[in-house]
Design brief:
CATH superfamily of the largest domain: P-loop containing nucleotide triphosphate hydrolases
Largest sheet: 6 strands, mixed
Number of domains: 3
Order of helices and strands: EEEHEEEHHHEHEHEEHHEEEEEEEEHEE
Strand content: 35-45%
CATH topology of the largest domain: Rossmann fold
Number of helices: 9
Strand order of the largest sheet: 6-7-8-3-9-10
Radius of gyration: 24 Å
Helix content: 25-40%
CATH architecture of the largest domain: 3-Layer(aba) Sandwich
Structural class: alpha+beta
CATH class of the largest domain: Alpha Beta
Shape: globular
Number of strands: 20
């Protein structure tokens, strides 16, 4: 549906460098990266607002490198909504259809459909400045969809929303993607948004595409240690494989030996990666875990996370675990408590220690 073929694009001192990516029809594709990484520039490159200095942009199999935005059948929604302040909600939604010279019946029908779909019928006569951020964002997306594009580009649509409005918009977008024949490309720096919605993910850092894969692979099986850190894996223990047999490796980290399932070879420099929620806590001697990795340590602190609690543990190395608040109370845990932390070998993901980000 969308392809960047070795695209390089310079804007002042910033540059996208030799970007190659493919977005399939029907993808909910996320472009992830820190502020200033080039996410919006890439999105605007798809829309046709910037022309590459080298390489080609293809849409639906056609090279559109020199084709202007209005001929690309793409809708772009910015994070600041960009609604027309002098028009009410209904007129904002109808704007694109009027520009296409659609007949009055078609305009009225489409506006009514979108007012219902986004549950904003009661706002039809309101002006944008009287709306909340969440209401404005829903109107902006409804306006974008009115002209029935087959590609919807979203520039950090949740960034200015309160938690309730954000949750509503997430459900709206999930339903849009499920029910319409629509390819959605969304940029964000927030990993949790991509984890909830994405089918595929690209990670861009300093204008360089450092990873592109399915959401499951990016977040749970990153290819490098640096990418694992970027996608928020809390426990990353670097070391060297000291034995490898029958798809089971032992990794010497200096502070501990980690057992994991992997096809990597003896002698390789690696990192053992696992998320905090994959760690099981118990009191020393209270039970025998079937996990092949068990470490005893001392709790150094807690971080509340709603109904959950992040537990920081000194096991001779730093280890993070996520458990229910009720579990902390039931176990009588507090800073200084001794605990056993267990991790299954099959859960641990092994990455090579090749530096990618920032090279």
């Amino acid at each position: 549906m969308i392809e960047f073929d070795h695209v390089s694009l310079s804007l002042g001192t910033f540059a996208l460098r030799d970007v190659c990516l493919k977005i399939r029809k029907g993808d909910f594709y996320f472009i992830l990266g820190p502020s200033g990484a080039g996410k919006t520039v890439l999105l605007e490159g798809i829309a046709g607002l910037h022309s590459p200095q080298s390489g080609h942009v293809l849409l639906r199999g056609e090279d559109v490198t020199g084709i202007p935005p209005e001929r690309r059948q793409i809708a772009l929604v910015y994070q600041d909504y960009s609604l027309f302040p002098h028009m009410n909600v209904a007129k904002n939604i109808a704007f694109g259809l009027k520009m296409q010279k659609a007949d009055r019946h078609t305009i009225e029908r489409r506006v009514e459909e979108l007012l219902r779909a986004f549950d904003i019928g009661g706002l039809r006569d309101r002006c944008p400045l009287t709306l909340s951020g969440g209401e404005q964002q829903r109107v902006a997306i409804a306006r974008a969809l009115a002209v029935e594009p087959d590609i919807l580009l979203l520039d950090e649509p949740f960034s200015a929303l309160d938690p309730v409005s954000k949750e509503k918009l997430i459900e709206d977008l999930r339903e849009i993607h499920r029910t319409r024949d629509l390819t959605i490309v969304q940029v964000t720096h927030a990993r949790e948004e991509a984890m909830r919605l994405a089918t595929r993910v690209a990670v861009i850092i300093d204008g360089v595409l450092v990873a592109e894969d399915g959401a499951e692979e990016i977040f749970n099986a990153p290819e490098t240690c640096e990418l694992a850190r970027f996608v928020g894996i809390e426990n990353i223990l670097e070391g060297r494989i000291v034995s490898s047999s029958d798809h089971v490796v032992r990794v010497d980290t200096g502070a501990a030996t980690i057992i994991a399932v992997s096809d990597l070879s003896k002698g390789e420099e690696v990192a053992a990666c696992f998320r905090a929620e994959d760690v099981t806590l118990s009191l020393p001697g209270s039970s025998r875990s079937s996990a092949r990795n068990t470490f005893e340590g001392t709790i150094t602190g807690f971080t509340p996370m709603g109904p959950l609690m992040r537990v920081s543990i000194d096991c001779g190395f730093s280890l993070e675990a996520t458990v229910l608040r009720d579990t902390v109370k039931e176990m009588g845990l507090s800073p200084g408590s001794r605990v056993s932390a267990s991790v299954k070998a099959s859960i641990i993901h092994m990455t090579v220690r090749t530096r990618v980000i920032g090279d």
